[in-house]
Amino acid sequence: MTERLLLLSLFLVGFCGVLANKNIIKKIFGLTLINNAVVILFVLEGARVGQHAPIMEEGIETIVDPIPQALMLTAIVIGVCITALALALAFRLYRNTGTFNIDAIRRKVHDAS
Amino acid sequence: MSNPTSWRVRLQILGACVAVTVVLLPLFLMDNDWPVAGRDYLEARGREDTGAINLVSAIYLGYRAFDTLGETIVLLVAVSGTIGIAARAGGAGLAMGYGASDNSARRSGAGAVRDQKMGDGEIFALPDEKRKTHALRTHLLEVVTGKLGPVVLVFGLYVMLYGHLSPGGGFQGGVVIASGIVFLALGSRADSRTGLNKASTLACIEAAAFLLLILVPLSGMFFVGPNGTRGFFANPIAELDVLPAGFIILLNAVIGLKVGAGIGFMCVAMLGKEEKA
Q1: In which domain, by residue range, is B183 found?
Q2: Are residues B83 and B218 in the same domain?
Q3: pLDDT at residue A10 above 90?
Q4: How many CB pairs under 8 A join A and B?
Q5: Which residues fall within 8 angstroms of residue A77, CB to CB, at 6 or more apart?
């Protein structure tokens, strides 16, 4: 229970980071925090049914569920892709506007249009 | 800070957080038992079906191998998109930040103002040293990363090739290899002989690995596997007694090469190592 509440707070920290920060880079940090919270939640839940890592060597019994781990492998890769693309977009915004501040960017876009 | 607009924004943020909490709390607090049918099936059959001792590898390269192909395609698209966006933003060259080429003499990383001259770039390098000079590089960084790079590469190969036996696999080993490539790029001197930190080489490796990843599963269409199965991503050597996990090792190696080259390519391009076209 405690672990799950901690994960919920980690999720909320990331969510607040996405909402409250003015800096785009910090917003992207928030996105990765959300991603990590979800990944850890799945692995944690899958690990409730066993004690050992899902590596079938001799004498290993009561393994944890390997399915969420394999799914989260996909989620981690997608998370890396999202982070990289978001950082590239932030870099491009920075080159065009000279700032990472979302308010300043919005002002500049508004002035330009 | 105390103007009403700011407070309204804060109230909105608080409201959004509360709403998300209300939506997610049941999900985080649910007390259902975790279904164990899949776990039990994999525990009983996974090793015989795929030959891999590591059941996570057995899933993502055995049972769900086609999904893994899609995953690598997503990674490929993300790398292409990132490079494309960064290249458009940076003009002719790629992201010219850390270690920008000598004639461009501008840097945008580390909070430096755009188009600022290098100026104090020679701080860390003596005149007759073979290192490229720029402000963010120190001897400590060069020595440590240059020496550590090959070790990290070997470790990445280990993680990649033993993914069927131990924790690891293509994606994990690929990311370790990408860190090794970044270390080599950080620690390389001007006369360095390694081609691994050249963006063009990495792009070639990635493309070749992706082609292999398409071609290798095709082999399953020409060999009849266990129970007469045959098709894309079917294991052609599952019936052999020696090394039934060989197919998984091969796929792990190909995926590791592709992921390592792709992410390394992305990092090296973002470091600004790309020579101008």
Answers
A1: 49-92+137-277
A2: yes
A3: yes
A4: 132
A5: B71, B74, B75, B171
